[in-house]
């Protein structure tokens, strides 16, 4: 393809051999392969140049081939030509001279391009490999900057919801104030150490004093702790720290990374965290970053059913599921915990794409048969069939139920479809999974392989708060019943803490064979700074103002400060039944996002983030209630 036929003739062959650059060959130390590559690229440039002239020359080819008519744009109709769709048809022999000139002009142009390409190649060869690499990098940076500029376009303004109670909450009681200040000090200790030793990494190793990350964030360094902590810093009035975080996000948070991340975790921690920071502070950068990131998650929904993959590569958009999940399935608590954030994204951007994705998931789930009315934790995104029939209100299932309730609350109670799904699910859970132990402790077990496993996870303890939150508006006006159920779960989970040496709860505990609310297996005895029990104390406090919840919250605060605090931050512990615990050396980002936030709220007045106006996502990021009565996110009647 190097020599293009032009009017039946060929250009003289090009001499691109070594003799073309004898001087450079002698002086340059670049490898021969590299030189050949450069020559080849010059040659390709030439070919491309010539190629782009083909359409023009083809006109003349037709002429040379002796066609009767030739298409020439813009010829005066007064010469008797026929107008044909913007072109004029003229007879043979018209202005042969002009065509020869045109031919000559093209030939000269190609020659000039050829010369230029050779000159460029020679210039390049004079440069060192490092210089060339630096040039390539500069060009790359330019492209990235351009893309960034394009991505950072302001979004259309939307009316902000009623944002009340975003600071203060200062209690009058000096004892409560002191406790609240202690929790703020713990937040500062966690943040300052992350700032010093783990800045920009996802999490901190407080003993090794360096950055840490888990596979949920792939191999990325996306500052998960910064994003997760922002709103806690804000409500605690740690404004300098908040600004530091904002600056880092503005300058460094980039989602074009070749990294395979968990769609669920990135949604609840990053999108939830950024949206909450936006609503609290009004800083556009958070909204823009949230929308950019959401765009990177969308390819995960490209499955035969629209049920998203568990993981997606942020750069390539390729998705897949966890290797350990039953029959290649996606996980209920993962694809079912996107609704709140995605509704807000559609609200803020005016783009229904996010809303449509999550509504599609909901519609699909609604249509499916459920064994005993229970939702199994596994659903295959290719076939649309359930995987293993394992149902849990803890890990793998938990926040799916939470988001049904919260979708209803967040829609100002307009999304009655979500409320109905929640009520149906909770009824089935109560019937099949909730039991009382011999010692009178109410627990939520797990349905596995056709029978009830009498085991409850720390994660399941969030359900006490969920039952209390959903009490108002429950079917058959069973508000009292659900508040009571919430209180019973809170009590059981408190027992799981109280029956340990460290007064911190284990990861999972049994109600079997004479054991009550105690972990049996060694690998279930750890505490990794999780929030769920404290979360339930806070909801129960808000709905009952029973002082025992503050007392239990304070017990947990003291235990965390005593056993998890190290000079480099806070760490999880491996065995809550051991009097000399060993550390796991991880300061989880949810410790700053959730555990410390719920504790702080527990010792604040109720006017800080009132529950009539704010709904907390599953990572404790508060999102405002949307009064969507007159807004259509996608023509869905639930929102009309
Ligand atoms: C958090 O990331 C969220 O609360 C999630 O819903 C469950 N697990 C952790 C905390 O334990």
UniProtKB/TrEMBL annotation:
Cystine crosslinks: 461-493
Keywords: Calcium, Disulfide bond, Glycosidase, Hydrolase, Membrane, Metal-binding, Signal-anchor, Transmembrane, Transmembrane helix
Region spans: Disordered: 145-175
Membrane topology of the entry: Single-pass type II membrane protein
Subcellular location: Endomembrane system
A single GO molecular function term of this UniProt record: mannosyl-oligosaccharide 1,2-alpha-mannosidase activity
Name of the featured protein: alpha-1,2-Mannosidase
Gene source species: Aramus guarauna
